Amino acid sequence: MTKLLRSWVESANAPQTDFPLNNLPYGAFRFAGGPLHCGVAIGEMILDVTRLEADGKLSLPAGTFASGIWNDFMDLGPKAWADFRTFLTEALAEGSPRQAEFEPYLVESGKVCMEMPFRVSEYTDFYAGRHHAFNVGTMFRGPENALPPNWLHIPIGYNGRASSVVISGTDIRRPWGQLKGPDMEAPIFAPSRRFDLELEMGAIVGRSSSGPVSVQQADDMIFGYVLLNDWSARDIQAWEYQPLGPFQAKATATSISPWIVTQAALGPFRTSTPAREKELLPYLREPGPMLYDIDLEVGLAPEGKPETILSRTNYNEMYYSAAQQLAHHTTSGCPMRVGDLLGSGTISGPEKANRGSLLELSWGGKEPLTLDTGETRSFLEDGDTLTLRGAAIGDGYRIGFGSCSGKILAATETPYG
Amino acid sequence: MTKLLRSWVESANAPQTDFPLNNLPYGAFRFAGGPLHCGVAIGEMILDVTRLEADGKLSLPAGTFASGIWNDFMDLGPKAWADFRTFLTEALAEGSPRQAEFEPYLVESGKVCMEMPFRVSEYTDFYAGRHHAFNVGTMFRGPENALPPNWLHIPIGYNGRASSVVISGTDIRRPWGQLKGPDMEAPIFAPSRRFDLELEMGAIVGRSSSGPVSVQQADDMIFGYVLLNDWSARDIQAWEYQPLGPFQAKATATSISPWIVTQAALGPFRTSTPAREKELLPYLREPGPMLYDIDLEVGLAPEGKPETILSRTNYNEMYYSAAQQLAHHTTSGCPMRVGDLLGSGTISGPEKANRGSLLELSWGGKEPLTLDTGETRSFLEDGDTLTLRGAAIGDGYRIGFGSCSGKILAATETPYG
Predict the structure, then answer these.
(1) How close, in Å, is residue A246 to chain B by CA atoms?
(2) Whole-number Å distance between alpha carbons of B34 and B31
(3) What are the binding residues of B for substrate?
(4) Which among A65, A69, A23, A70 is positioned nearest to A43, based on CA atoms?
(5) Quick one: chain A helix, strand, coil %, rounded to 5?
(6) Where on this chain does substrate bind (chains A, B) (predicted)?
(7) How far apart are CA A182 and CA A28, in angstroms?
(8) For residue range B268-320, what is the model confidence (pLDDT) as tens digits?
(9) Domains (ranges, CATH) in chain B?
(10) How far is CA B218 from CA A173, B323, B359, in A?
């Protein structure tokens, strides 16, 4: 197991930092009112690579970081990804001769706003957590029909809405929608009453493809990972989702954490998917460990009150890896593009304390949760702030994702308010 | 009813042209190997507006047509759309003083290649044809459950894959996919055996929005329409679509016709949606006629053989208009963007001769069609060329869409071939 790599940026050597030299995640930041810059997190600082490039200190194609987001860099491909990581690792290492040259390009992370680190080309969300699928299936269709017949054969997914992906910190407005409860005679148009979170990981596609790709090729196409909260209106979903899947229930917003943690940084934490209950078709079999051991948690803080941790789980609970999902995604010849985002599906573990959605935690609202503040929750209330956190835990260091948060605002008074 | 507007471009006055002065649809073309140009179809000619702009002959923001596609123009908004249409109509009218000035900017449509006229931001496909929904529902779930309970209340839709949208003329490779017929014990990975077309219209969103919009606002946001063929692998769809909807079955390709027929050109052909079987919620009610009377047909030509018309139908068969679909699409707060494409859903009419897919025409393969050549078809065969055509029929003129065609190529021998 790799050890902590020490940096001349002192805060990067603290045992609890999310951003040691081993990590080097990629984000986009701005000073209030200023233009976007590409940045690399190191301890409590951000290395401004857009300014480094402008000053001629990087050997990448001109303008790679000019847009302030990472799509153009991704487009350079895996060799450039690896070379740049090596360059950064050496430049920021304790004892590097570049310290004096690079120090002026560090900005304090507390003084800037983080923005979307890449332009989302298209967004696909999967349903690839065994425990989540069983829990939700049981609630919607009963335990005997919980797992659809295709579930153990296909990483089930649906296309989501890229335009609705937002950066952590963006407020989330409770949606209006068409609903029909089981006791209603006709549907109504009203604000969602069963608005929920989904704790997920997002995989970012860094290479384009124009035909089917193997699981190994798919793994090579993945640039990095973020935390992802797929906000979900359960009452809208229940009424709309047959026969063509969730649509408006999932289109209000999907929040992601601001730092893209690269696949390279996560290398020491690779792990295999759980044992197969049915053998997969050859095109979906993993040639090696392509899932990751990443501790995850989600907390809920009511307006002005302390946070309660709702759930702790791990990315290694997924039945299908992002590489398997991506390989399946291309089987039809579906072209993939740089900046495509794949949501893992909700990551629930085997126990109640490991469930990644309120739908599961409150069992469809039948067993409201009691928060540390004494309040109860079946679904989200206005003013609640939800925060996902995640980290791969190494020997004396952590590859952290930072956090992914969003606060629920009340619905507008009228739909067109 | 408007009459034919005469143009100094003689071929635009022929009664059977798709592109009289009344139409003026927008496309993107190139000479072999050359850059993209924005063009306007007029009879058998194309007016090169990218070159007109480069020569300073247009009063639009500099560079509007520099990309050779229409997204930047759409982004200028409805006043610019109307002004430019008025300008073109006057410049190309019989007797216009601009004839000598504009003649050098006409290119023969037969000498150029048509390309995608706009960059598709995201693609949504609906399921909004009453006859199609009933036919397919009957086959999949039996006549008593044919129409899902939500169908008469919601324009049911799902997010498709923008990266798979291609221009008419692009060959369509038969996809591989995971299939499981009702008689198979386990799924297999194989080329689709039930590959199909879907005759649809596509509506192009020309204005962005960031919250719910009314049906009237939605109608105002629609820039124009194209013919759309949503290629569909029925065997992949049948196995994958529960519970989250079609995914790889619809991701191989979606073909569109090259000319964007503007909403303005279609104005004289507005018509109301059919009578409601259940009253819609107020947010979905039409404030006026927002559907269009457009004759549609689809033909199939086996390799090297003449074409058989499979079906004739009309866009006015849709139960929901594109404006209603778009309004519903925004209810959750889902942001819409310039270049979003909405597929109408398959447009089948009441009779067998009006069905817009082979699934319906051959009743799931149980009643193969006999072509004029004597061959039969349940689903598409390799080498088949499918062609959609459409036109709104005026008094002595037609607002034509041109055609939308694609030829089926055999699947690759191995999935990764």
Answers:
(1) 6
(2) 5
(3) 127, 141, 237, 241, 346
(4) A23
(5) 25, 30, 45
(6) 127, 141, 237, 241, 346
(7) 45
(8) 999 999 999 999 999 999 999 999 999 999 999 999 999 999 999 999 999 99
(9) 10-115 (2.30.30.230), 123-409 (3.90.850.10)
(10) 21, 5, 32
